[in-house]
Amino acid sequence: MSSYADAGVDIEAGDRAVELMKSKVARSRRPEVVDDASGFAGLFDASALLKYRRPLLATSTDGVGTKVMLAQRLDKHDTIGIDLVGMVVDDLVVCGAEPLFMTDYIACGKVVPERIAEIVGGVAEGCRLAGCALVGGETAEHPGAMGVDEYDLAGAGTGVVEADAMLGPDRVLVGDVVLGLASSGVHSNGYSLVRHVLKNADLGLERYLPELSRTLGEELLEPTRIYSLDCLALLRETTVHAFAHITGGGLAANLARSLPGTADAVLNRGSWTPPAIFTTLAERGGISQDDMDRTFNLGVGMCAIVPADEADTAVNLLTQRGLPTWILGEITPGTGKAHFS
Length: 341
Known about the structure:
It is a single chain. By secondary structure, the chain is of the alpha+beta class. The protein has a six-stranded mixed sheet. Strands 3-6-4-5 form a four-stranded mixed sheet, with helices on one face. Strands 1-2 form a two-stranded antiparallel sheet. α1 packs parallel to α4 and α3 runs parallel beside α4. Keywords: ATP-binding, Cytoplasm, Ligase, Nucleotide-binding, Purine biosynthesis.
């Protein structure tokens, strides 16, 4: 005789994890969320979209890559969910969409209820910071396929934007200004290179580095900054032609995605100082400037392209909201590329 428990799946642990996370998920609730007593689906009241003339639904899905491996090594699981939300909702806001709700998926080798609750609690906190609701999710136990302390997570989000308010390259004009919105650090991209540097330079995550004023592990697990509410506030108060979420591929490659084929973004590398973690990685790992540019955000997590006469207003607005922002560059005639002057 064999049972599911014999195969390594603990149904009771899964039920306990659900109970532990309920109060945390509730903090992300929006008025449009409708309870489904069965728990099989997340419900969102679509009558909220009636205020739009022509609502477009936007959707995005993502994960956090190998950053989860550092969370597992440090046994710290309460912020990796914030990273997940940032990766999803800040893609949505690029087109001008307001994030409405998210779902998550966690695969693990063994359900440890307290650990799962910490992960989901981070997702819920990220949703709260983004102004969206966490309406559901799934936790799957994969014994034999993953180690008992291994897990991975992914999520999907939905947002809405008025059709005639959708942002994009077609709105960008020569003479516009590119604003840099500060990142909180490495965010959730480039961690395969980070881990390569840690291994080759024999750097321990518990090691205190004076230039960081904390341990390397604390710096590398700093959660991804969530920009959605700041970007939406900017849209309400000023004119924005485009956003660019700076993720895998680096600043120039991601910014180019928001440019028309008739214009370039010329960026001033001297307009900001990248956070110390990037200098540490470059020097300890012997990484070239070109590879740094193509891998990391280098301190710029989001860009906004605005008319020149509204640039100062935009900078002041975001700065007052606690988000360091500066004039990063300008839009010139070109062929749809972003590059440093």
